[in-house]
Amino acid sequence: MVHSAQYMSSSVEVTSCPKGVLPEYAFIGRSNVGKSSLINMLTNQNGLAKTSSKPGKTLLINHFLVNANRSDAWYLVDLPGYGFAKAGMEQREKLKQMIERYCLYREQLVSLFVLVDSRLEPQKIDLQFMTWLGEQGIPFAIVFTKVDKLGRERLKLNVEAYKKELLETWEELPPIFLTSSENRVGGEELLAYIEKVNEELRH
Ligand code: GTP
Ligand code: MG
């Protein structure tokens, strides 16, 4: 349950992220996949996270505090996208480092959500990133975005193809969610998952 959500901070590096012990969940994926839009849907606040039709909008580690002053408070984190070609080599490398260091060293990070565009076949850059997460022992779930852009059958085929691809390298599939920020689909399942994990952490 999201009772409230507020912007907390934007950090250039993991060492300047908010202190404390609240559990946090971060959204990652290619630029323009819909990370910021999904955060707005989950918190029911359009404009909380800045979105854009052009890739490369989010360039910092943005923390949003959910359920402030309650025992079930937690952070949602909006990360910059990876693999944005137009950003230029130097900036791309800088963002890559920011993301990797956040994933490796943020102790409060409970799970990442890797967002993938439901219209596309499995992309190398996403699979590589998930492989890296696996090697580092960083838990993640997969979130298919923009399902409003596809028919039911096509979506089913794409998700099945993705699972098949994952099972080439993974023994077990991670949790998988289907979402549309446009049509407000899939938010409840995602929040229920976060709530369940938070509940387990408290016990
Ligand atoms: P960066 O911050 O640049 O890495 O991008 P992002 O992943 O945060 O993407 P953002 O949320 O800014 O959305 C990118 C574009 O996709 C915007 O034009 C959104 O309106 C659009 N978009 C996001 N989610 C959906 C969705 O579920 N359905 C549709 N049709 N469009 C979406
Ligand atoms: Mg963004």
Q: How does the SSE layout of this entry go?
A:
Elements: E1 5-11, E2 24-29, H1 35-43, E3 61-66, E4 74-78, H2 89-105, E5 109-117, H3 124-136, E6 140-145, H4 152-169, E7 176-178, H5 187-202
Parallel strand pairs: 2-4, 2-5, 5-6, 6-7
Antiparallel strand pairs: 1-3, 3-4
The protein binds guanosine-5'-triphosphate and magnesium ion.
Residues 35-36, 57-58, 78 line the site of magnesium ion.
Structure description:
- The structure is a single chain.
- By secondary structure, the chain is of the alpha/beta class.
- It has a single domain (5-202), classed as 3-Layer(aba) Sandwich (Rossmann fold).
- The chain has five helices and seven strands, in the order E-E-H-E-E-H-E-H-E-H-E-H.
- The protein has helices spanning 35-43, 89-105, 124-136, 152-169, 187-202, and strands at 5-11, 24-29, 61-66, 74-78, 109-117, 140-145, 176-178.
- A seven-stranded mixed sheet has the order 1-3-4-2-5-6-7, with helices on both faces.
- The longest helix has 18 residues, at 152-169.
- The chain is globular.
- The mean pLDDT is 95.
- Guanosine-5'-triphosphate binds next to helix 1.
- Guanosine-5'-triphosphate binds at residues 31-37, 51-53, 55-58, 80-81, 145-146, 148-149, 180-182.
Stretches with pLDDT under 50, minimum 5 residues: none
Strand order, sheet with most strands:
1-3-4-2-5-6-7
Question: What is the annotated CATH architecture?
Answer: 3-Layer(aba) Sandwich
Order of helices and strands: EEHEEHEHEHEH
The proportion of residues in beta strands is 15-25%
Q: Determine the number of helices (DSSP H or I, runs of at least 4 residues).
A: 5
- Taking the alpha carbons of the first and last residues, their distance comes to 18 Å
Cα Rg:
16 Å
Q: How would a crystallographer describe the biggest sheet?
A: 7 strands, mixed
| Helix coverage percent | 25-40%
The shape is globular
Q: Which CATH class? A: Alpha Beta
Give the helix/strand class. Answer: alpha/beta
Mean pLDDT over all positions: 95
Bound molecules: guanosine-5'-triphosphate, magnesium ion
Number of domains: 1
CATH-defined fold name: Rossmann fold
Count every beta strand, where a strand is a DSSP E run of 2 or more residues.
7
Give me the CATH superfamily: P-loop containing nucleotide triphosphate hydrolases
